[in-house]
Amino acid sequence: MNERVFSVLGIFDGAQQLVDAVPVVKTRVSGRLEAYTPYPVHGIEDLLGLRKSPVAGMVLVMGVIGALAALAFELWASGIDYPIVTAGKPVLSWEAFVPIMFEVMVLFACFTAGLGMLLLLNRLPMFRHPMLRSRAMALITRDKFALAVESEGAPLDVDAVAAALRAAGARMVEVVELPEPAGPASPRFFARFAGAVAVACLIAGTLVYWGVKLFPVTVPVVHMLDQPRLDAQRASLWFRDGFGMRMPAAGTVARGHMPYRVERAEDAALLVNPLPRSAAVLRRGRSLYATYCSVCHGILGDGVPTLTAAYGARPANLVSPQITGYPDGLLYHAVAAGKNAMPSYAADLTEDERWAVIHYVRALQRALNARDSDLPQEVAK
Amino acid sequence: MTGGLVRKALAAGILAGAAGLGGTILWSGWERFWINWIVWFLFLLTVGLGCLFIVALEHVVGAKWSVPLRRVPERLSGLVLLVSPAMVPALASLPVLYSWARPEGLTDPVVAAKAGWLNVPFFAARAAGCILLWFIAHRILVRGSIRQDADRDARFNMRARRFAPVFMVIFGVTITLVAFDWISSLAPAWYSDVFGIYVFAGTFLAGLAATTLGVLYLTARQRLPGVRADHLYNLGGFLFAFTVFWSYIGFAQYMLMWYANLPEEVFWYRDRLEGSWGVLLLVLAAVHFLVPFFVLIPRAAKGDPRKLLWVAGLMLLAHWLDLYWMIFPAIGRGPLLGWPELSFALFFVCTALAWIGRAMRVGADMPVGDPFLREGLEFRL
Lengths: 381, 381
Fold this sequence. Notes:
The complex is a heterodimer. By secondary structure, chain A is an alpha+beta fold. Helices cover 46% and strands 7% of the residues of chain A. Chain A has three domains: 1-183, no CATH class; 184-220; 265-374, Cytochrome c-like domain (Cytochrome Bc1 Complex, Chain D, domain 2), CATH 1.10.760.10. Chain A is built from 13 helices and four strands. Chain B has helices at residues 2-61, 71-76, 78-83, 87-90, 94-97, 109-112, 120-151, 155-183, 195-220, 229-260, 263-273, 276-296, 299-302, 305-327, 339-359, 373-377. Chain B is globular and about 60 Å long. Chain B has one domain. Chain B starts with a helix and ends with a helix. The chains are: A alpha+beta, B mainly alpha. At the A-B interface, helix 4 of A face helix 10 of B.
């Protein structure tokens, strides 16, 4: 009994001899049988009693996972994260998802089949497989066929197995031993490995850099720079009016917005601010006011602009009693439609943003015309 | 004894079916008669053409595994000769079913622009050209092969190899003409570039299913000695693969039209999705793709005669349903399945079975004169 034996090989001259030997050996010894042949021998897997490969099931499961993963991503991307309407279809249209589900399914299935077979099931690369050190390996890759009885953890009775193989017609018998167990890799090995990778990267990078620079045989990749589009300040050669963009059809309404159609200030005065006077709305209004309004009306709303006097026009004092007395709708009308020298801010501020600014202007008016009674009780004392 | 019984039953079926055909004309009118006629002659024609394609495919690629099975598609391809003359009386259906053949049909400017192609003389000439080409191809590929049984002349293989690629072109053009002329032009304003390929996918599957059934019929009677599960596995693999091809093409055609949503394209799908037709399409997707696909996924299933038997049977049913779904909505009514449809099924199925029963005795059961027969019998996966 030798504990260091990996397997006992019987070498046969032909595929038929090998196939005939399998049942003979099976009856005489126990142990895992394995065959090594220069080309696939049909039916040998059934004779040896090898377990069915799980690769098909793995591929099925991973294919289904791939399809579902693609579906989940598409549902999230086009349904939740960035719902954008294409060609008037519903945002969640299963038809548009199918091609991507199909491709991702194929991708997952292919990688599972290839890498799963090589890496997971066959555990490649396997540089220290005991068979690679056997003398018979050179014969098996040429024209001989080997039947191996492998030790399944338990030590093999080498003599009995060898006798059984000879009885089954083996021309030669070889005992394959396990290699010496490999020690842990030394720090020196890792240092050399890292050094080799660094040198390889350096050489490859230098070669590619100078190669592409000196011999520019390939067109540089320009991606979206090179496309038929209209650059700024250029006239369109395609449209007769020279504009690159078309006017939307009359009556077009942006998604989620209604155009401001009130023309007379008296009508606008009836509008009611739909937003609650909450801290979040006031913070939003302050931020928007600082961006769009404070340049002219001043950061306090008192009509002291940060502009130079060369601007000429005198912006309104928003905290004056006159404007404080305006209803919300009038202020809104001024923002949406413009007033005197002030242009319309309808293009800059959405409906909600305009109303948030109105709330903030009201807060400014209150703050700059504060009365003692406005103070909290403890402070007032 | 049983053979005589079957013959009598088939004769009774043909007579009863023929009576039903007459009754259809008398009580349901010509429209119902012709629409059934078109569905059924196209069904048998495509089964035969699919078989002829399989025969030619073997010669084109030089396949050896299919040589022992080749006599089955060769015999079944005779359906083309049996059924294609049914095109001649079907020309009488043109004014009944095809709006472009009626004077008022040309009032639509889109259809009027196609009048150079869609007119009765040219239509008849195309049909005649197709029939002529099929007869020539059948003569060279099938009659030559049966003659080889006796004279064992290997020059037939060379001739077939030279002619088969030519037939591939002929087949591609003629199957597209069949699809465009007989099916697509029922809605003359409609067009789809991929329609010919869609019909080809169904045709090839129908031919494969018929071939599989024929092979199973002969192997069950020990008339194909040496044909084993490995050969069946290849037929199963073909069925498996081409269910995916059919649905891939079918879905691609649908998705592009769904996306573009152009009125001149999408109405064809609207007619075939509204009401019960949509349910029928789901059934079609199930029997033509989902069920055969998932049944044939396991490796063992592809070589299992029992599974192949009912999958191939289901496939022929699905092919009929496919034609029914494409053609019947042209008469602008909901799905019809009454005694006229049943008597057409009875008449055509019994006629085809009676004819196939005779065809299955044409020549030897295997191409015994083919020099590659031995190699084909030695085929292993």
